[in-house]
Design brief:
The structure is a single chain. Helix content is 25%, strand content 28%. It has 271 residues and is an alpha/beta fold. The protein is globular and about 55 Å long. The two termini are 30 Å apart.
Length: 271
């Protein structure tokens, strides 16, 4: 059985995304054509509306529809180079518009007009929403990370705590940390190693005004799951300051303009 590759797209939080890093990743996906792309949640930021912005200037300044059109266009760029399966785990930021309606305008909430799959037109883009804790590889479940409470400041340890609760290897976003933390359980023939995998983020940290002093223990990157017959190997990919990254000895990151004026990666270069 050949090894399959799942590319796990970490928290993009459009429009606070690192455009170079995201488009380099789209270029990698277009070139490598993985077996699946898994967007792990918080693809959108939606600073407003939310309970955090209620009664503030942001509640009147932010335009959910305009922001969603930008996010849909970014997903459309991914689709230009990749026609394979894309699955999407809904993050807490993705939920903000719908949650806002349920909290402050419940009479409108049943319309679904502000659900993430409607706002970003998943039907047109052929993107499938996965419920939390869905199996994405043998012995592996995916979640965004907000579904079960508890955060750890050490990269990888939040996911490791979820492993203990779920008795499965876990791939997740939410923490903006990029690390693998193994947990070995059982004795004798029942001994096995499970993995907690946090896949980092793809934000431009300078746009995150909520970061105190601009400092956070975050790691920019994304993830790969190399899937075999019985399990999968987690592989963190770390993104450099210029938006480039290295996979299998090749660097992805050279940028050029295409005929439509968009930026796109030239392809892999020797690191």
């Amino acid at each position: 059985m050949s090894v399959q590759e799942i590319v796990v797209v970490s928290d993009v939080q459009y429009p606070l995304h690192d455009a170079r890093a995201v488009r380099n990743l789209w270029g990698y996906i277009g070139e490598r054509q993985p077996d699946k792309v898994l967007i792990i949640g918080d693809f959108m930021n939606y600073a407003a509306p939310s309970r955090w912005s209620k009664g503030t200037r942001a509640e009147f300044e932010n335009d959910v529809v305009r922001e969603s059109e930008g996010g849909k266009a970014l997903l459309g760029e991914l689709r230009e180079g990749y026609s394979g399966p894309i699955e999407f785990v809904v993050g807490n930021h993705d939920l903000r518009p719908a949650d806002y309606l349920r909290r402050y305008a419940p009479a409108l909430a049943n319309s679904r007009a502000f659900d993430i799959d409607v706002l970003l037109d998943f039907e047109e883009l052929d993107i499938k929403i996965l419920p939390p804790f869905s199996e994405v590889a043998p012995g592996w479940v995916a979640m965004h990370g907000h579904e079960l409470r508890g955060l750890n400041a050490i990269p990888g340890r939040t996911a490791a705590a979820k492993v203990k609760k779920l008795d499965r290897s876990v791939v997740m976003g939410h923490t903006h940390k990029n690390a693998v933390s193994p947990e070995t359980v059982g004795v004798g023939r029942n001994r096995r190693t499970l993995f907690g995998f946090e896949v980092g983020h793809l934000m431009d940290e300078s746009k995150a005004e909520y970061l105190a002093q601009g400092v956070a223990n975050w790691q920019k990157g994304w993830g790969r799951l190399l899937v075999g017959k019985y399990s999968a190997v987690p592989v963190p990919v770390y993104v450099e300051r210029d938006g480039s990254f290295v996979v299998d000895g090749a660097r992805y990151g050279a940028i050029q303009r295409n005929a439509r004026g968009r930026f796109s990666p030239k392809g892999a270069q020797v690191a």
